[in-house]
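Chapter summary example: a protein plus 5'-O-[(L-methionyl)-sulphamoyl]adenosine.
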Amino acid sequence: MTDTLTTPLPDASPDDSRSVFYATTPIFYVNAAPHIGHAYTTILVDIVTRFHRLQGNDTFFLTGTDEHGEKVAKAAAAAGVTSQAYVDEVSGDFRRTWDELGIGYDEFIRTTEPRHQKVVQDVLQRVYDAGDIFYGEYSGLYCVGAERFVTEKELQDGRCPESEDPPEYRTEANYFFRMEKYRPWLREHIERNPDFIRPERYRNEVLAMLREPIGDLSISRPRARVPWGISLPWDEEHVTYVWFDALLNYWSALVSRGVEGRYWPAVEHFIAKDIVKPHGVFWPTMLKAAGLPVYQHLNVHGYWLMDARKMSKSFGNVVRPLDLQAKYGRDAFRYFLLRDMGFGLDANFSESAIAERINADLANDLGNLLNRTLGMLGRYRDGVVAPAGPSESADDEVRDAFLALPDRMVERFDALQFDRAIEDVMSAVRSANKYVAEQAPWLLAKDPVRAERLDRVLRTCLEALRCASVLFECVMPDKCRELRVQLGMGEGAVTLDDARTWDAIPAGTRAGTGDPLFPRIDLEALAEEIAGPQVAALEHKPEIAIDDFAKVELRVGTVTHAEAHPKADKLLVLTVSLGSETRTVVSGIRAHYQADELVGQRVVVVANLAPVKLRGVESQGMILAAEDDEGTLAIVGPLRDLADGSEVR
Ligand code: MSP
C-alpha cells in the first residue's frame, strides 16, 4: 500500500512577485527508525522554511522516505516481513514522528509511490534516448551500507568512509550513465557559482573529486538479484539503482503536483556531509543530462556526535527525538538543535548540554525578562499597558538593538549562520535585562513624579519581548504564540515586519501574569539520572601527567549488600567493604545488574571521591565499570583474590 500526504498550497497569482523558496531534506532510508540526526535536518528545514514564510515568501517544504534498494530489502528480510509491509511501517514511523514534532512539511514523498516511479521512468527514458545511458560490465568494490561503488582511494582502513563497513568485490552487467562526460561542465559550474555547494569546505571536497575522472555511474541492478526497485522502462530485467531513483524525488514531488514551474529550480537542498558525493556529483550531472536546470544550493551540515562518533543506528548510539521532546518540550528542543550546532561543523550531543542551554537562554534570559516585566506591570499598573510616552537614550538603545535584528537575521539565515542568528536575538534580550537593572523600575514605582518614566521602561520591555517573539517565531512557534498571548496580544499570525515596528502594543492592552514559559531544569536531578558509567563515557579525556593519576585513590572492595534506590529507577545503593571501613555507593547500573547478583562481587572503588547526595542518599565513592559500543556494561574487579582495601596502583 502506498499513500500520499499532500497539503493544499496557497494559489500563486500570475503576477506573483514573492520570492520562491523550495527546501528539501534527504529522503531517509527506512532501514532505521528516526533519530536526532534525521530530526536535526528536518527541524532545520522546518525552521528555515517558516522564516521564509514569515517574510511573505512562497515556500514549499519537501521531505519523505527512500524505500528501495538492497539495504531496505535486507532489513525487511531480517524482520521477517515483506519489503512492502516493512517500508509502510517504517515510513509511517517517520511521518508520525515529524507530525508529532510539529514539522510543517508541504509534501511527504515515498519512492514506492506510483507518482514517483512514473517520473523516474520518464527521466530515465529521456536520458536513454539522448544516448547518455549504455550497457556494460563493471567490477569494483561495492558498499551495501552506502549503496554505491567505492574507490580504493576513498577507503579508510579498508572500510567505506560513509558506513564504515568493509566493501565487497562485485562484477556486474549494468546500465551506465555517462557521468564522466559531464565532469568538465560541472567543474566549471561550481567554479563559476562559488556558493553552489556550501559551506566552502564541501565545495572544495567536490571540486577535489572532479579534478580526476569520476567514471560513468552504474544506474541499474539485475532484477534477479535486487527485485526491490523501479524497472528500467526499456529493460524489465533491470531495476533502477537506488540513488538514481532517490535523487529524483526532489523533482518528482513537484511534477506530481504540477508545481514544478513554480518552484524549480529555486531549490535549496539540506543534507549532512555523508551524502555530499551523490548530491554534489551524481545529481547535478543527472539533471544536466535530463535537460533540467540544476538546483540553487546544496547546503551541507556536519554530524551530531554521541560519544565522539556519528550518531547512527549502525553504531548503536542513537537518541529518539520524541523522547527528548517529551522531556524538554518541543520548542526548547528545537531551540537547542539550532543554537548548539554551527552549520557545517560537527556538534556533540548530550542531555546535559540541552538542559544547560535551556536554563541559560530560555529560563534565565528570556524567561526572566518576561516574568519580571509582567510581574511589574501587574504590580504597578494592574497589568494594563500605558500609552507610549517620550523616550530617553537608554530606551532608544534597546529599541535600536531590536529593530536592527530582522535584517540581520535575514542575512544570518542567508549565510547559514543559524546559531549566530539566535545569539544575536539573545544578546538583545540580555541587553534588555541589563536595561531593567539599570533603570530600576522598582525605584521609579516609589516616586509618583516618575510615573511616566516607569511606563516608558515597562513598555520598552514589553516591546522587546514582542519583537523577540516574532524573531523566534520560526524556531519556537508554540512558545512565541504563548508569549504574545501573555503580552495580551492574542493568537493572531505575525510577519517579520511586526519586528520592524516599535510601540506597536496598543495602550490599554491587558497583559497576563507572566507564567514561566520555560521551567528550569533541575540539573542535579538530571546528573543523577544519567549518573554512573554513562557520564564518564560521554567525555573525551585530556592527556594527564602521572601526578594527576596519583590523585585518584582506587581500592579493591566487596559488595556486602545491594538494594534498589527508593527514589530513582536507574540507581542501586551498594554497601561496599573496604576492609577497615564500609562505604555506601550509589551507582547507575540498575539497568545492567540485579541487586542480589551483586552481593559478594569484587569491585574497584574510587575511594577519595567527594561525597555527593543522589536523590537523598549520600554516595561515598564510585565503583568502576566498562561499557562497550553495544551498551553492554561490566563491573571491573581484581582478577586474583586479595584483601579488601588493597590499593589499585
Ligand atoms: N536515503 C539517503 C538519502 C537520499 S536523498 C535523495 C540517505 N538516507 S539516511 O537515512 O541515511 O539519511 C542521511 C541523512 O540523515 C543525513 O544526510 C542527515 O540529513 C541525517 N543524519 C543522519 N545521521 C546524522 C547525524 N548523526 N548527524 C546529522 N545528521 C544526520 O542517506
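Key point: The two ends are 64 Å apart (CA to CA).
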